[in-house]
Amino acid sequence: MSYIIINDLRALPVAAAISIRSKLQRKNTTIMISREIMRNHDYGQLDSERLANIKAHLLKIFFGAIIVESDSEIEDASDTTGLMSSLYSITNDSLASKEKYPDLWRELLALNRGACSIVKELIKCKAQEVYVFNGRLAYCYAITKYAANSNLKCFFYEYGRQVKINRWKPKYTLTSFPIHRLERWGQELLNFYKFHKFLPAQIEILGDDFKRSKLTNKFTEFYEDGVSSKYDVVVFLSSTHEFLSLSEEICGNALTNGELEFLKKVIAANGENLKYAVRCHPNQTNDPSWQDSLKLLKNYCSFHRIDFFPPTSKISSYQLIENSKKVAVDISSIGIDAIIMKKSLEIFGNPDYRKIFDAAKEQFPNDSFALSKYVCEAMALQVYLFQYKLSSIGLLWYLLDRVLFSRILRMK
Questions:
Q1: Who contacts 112 (Cβ-Cβ below 8 Å, separation ≥6)?
Q2: pTM here?
Q3: CATH code for residues 2-170+390-409
Q4: CB 267 within 8 A of CB 222
Q5: How confident is residue 306, by pLDDT bands cut at 50, 70 and 90?
Q6: Sheet of 2-6, strand order
Q7: Domain residue ranges of the chain, discontinuous segments joined by +
Q8: Second-level CATH architecture of 198-383
């Protein structure tokens, strides 16, 4: 028996769940909804309780969805990984805690109880496979963890990985691994690239389009200041709050424990007697605690005469790359930009492009142009890999939500 868990009532997750149901044998497929997602909010889910109730009951009437009541006997979570992941995602605060956001924490605890209640139902029903949206947040982590620790097959549906999402022709992603398992994504992309059926001209155009979009991303408009200094190594940081509390067991992301530890690891690998620069991610400005969380790193850089560029810096990342002998990243995608710019790159984490980059280096050890082309073409295929169109009934739900629910039921 298959169970599709609708743990996010936004338009595309529900439409994707309906589409998955239509692909499976309906007699052996059941949709489950936790009562708690109709009462509480997780990352991205902002429907009013009234609207959430309307959606859930429509799903019950037309698609036979089961609404699972929360079990009051379930104790507060001992494993708070999913709750913390939601807390970081909602607040963007790298120093978030349950004490700092008590009201939000209570909502997340309720969502976790809802997820645990669904786990109890799955055990009772002797489920063989389960489908969940996202998989790492408070409203679903308990389900993902249960699946990982049992013989239950778990599939993950998510927003499509299009470069430019068409809101009227959306796609969803369906994988047998969590979408945040970046290393697995890279391996699947590499396999797909090796055996794709695109014509040479088609794949070249896709690669060129990917390269163009990468070099004209939203951050380039902030690059106002030039840089004249030359560096041996430029270290690019990821946004702390975006990658905290990702379970290594579920997502496989063995991230360095903090920016300062990452910098020390880079220095240990390359030597102390080099000229370093550290560039913080511009997204870090969304973190209300960034000045506190980066204080130790800033002080360390000041003491060791390492040029430190904070998130608010308008310095051109591309000029930093151009003026460096080597670029070092953890999982930041700017590593791809360094590849495109034909710079030496050292990757310390497991971003999705690492497997592709390693394969390209083996094939083109002395040809930076061919290496860059290989990486861009392979990464461009992410808009095709594991992407599915909505079924007719799924698309109908999606359009009703976007047009009717959004414009009428959300009116105050």
A1: 76, 77, 82, 83, 138, 139, 141, 142
A2: 0.91
A3: 3.40.50
A4: no
A5: very high
A6: 66-68, 29-34, 2-6, 129-133, 153-159, 171-175, 387-389
A7: 2-170+390-409, 198-383
A8: 3-Layer(aba) Sandwich (3.40)
